[in-house]
Amino acid sequence: MTHEYWLDRWKRNEIGFHQEGFNPYLLEYWPRLNIPDNSTVFLPLCGKSRDMIWLHDRGHSILGVELSKLAVTAFFQENKIIPSRQPDPGFDRYVAGNITILLGDFFDLNKKHLDKVSTVYDRASLVALPPDTRKRYVRHMMHLLPPAAQILLIGFDYPQTEMQGPPYAVSVEEINMLYQHHAEINLLKQVDVLHENRRFQQFGLSRLEENIVLLTTK
């Protein structure tokens, strides 16, 4: 999975992963995390997610990282926000009040970038990555985060042989394998959502689940 693949997806506006509204699981489960209003929330591979607006409206500072300049500029334009651009080694830093998006590669982040982060919201980042990259993603995330950080993870699971990703199938068992040495794992909800997703029905999937997982780093 190359950078060019995702940049081309944004150029062609093939962004079926983008949700126009706020994610319902975020609204349902965020209060259970008991995050102080002034906490910094990190959104990896954030795209132009409107969930950043919802979290910001809860009083949180937002830090996103995104590879596509089209996605970053669209986020600010569509939400009628004018950011400033600031230099940052390896990134272009877009800042507007308590919202910061780093334009660049997630794997170029260092601990200093996330030194104020207490919580991560991963709606579709892990499932956007092929297996080998998922392992690297988790290792890098765990290297960056402080102990007792919380991660609200929302992902998909389906028979991988029935559809080519992304989004890739990531089972609860794989989540356990990836994070077991790094975090406490709590499966909050497992939902059969195939009947709600006509696009995935057309791909011929026989099963589609959404898994909502809360991780707390050790």
- What characteristic shape results from the CA principal axes? globular
Q: What's the CATH superfamily, by name?
A: Vaccinia Virus protein VP39
Total strands: the figure is 9
Mean pLDDT level? 93
Q: Extract low-pLDDT stretches.
A: none
What summary fits the major beta sheet? 9 strands, mixed
Distance between the termini: 30 Å
The DSSP helix count reads: 7
CATH topology: Rossmann fold
User: Any idea what the CATH architecture is?
Assistant: 3-Layer(aba) Sandwich
| Beta-strand percentage range | 25-35%
CATH class assignment? Alpha Beta
Total count of domains: 1
Order of helix and strand elements from N to C terminus: HHEHEHEEEEHEHEHE
In helices, the fraction of residues equals: 25-40%
Strand order of the largest sheet: 3-4-5-2-1-6-7-9-8
**Structural classification:** alpha/beta
Gyration radius, rounded: 17 Å
Task: Characterize this entry briefly.
27% of the residues lie in helices and 28% in strands. It has 218 residues and is an alpha/beta fold.
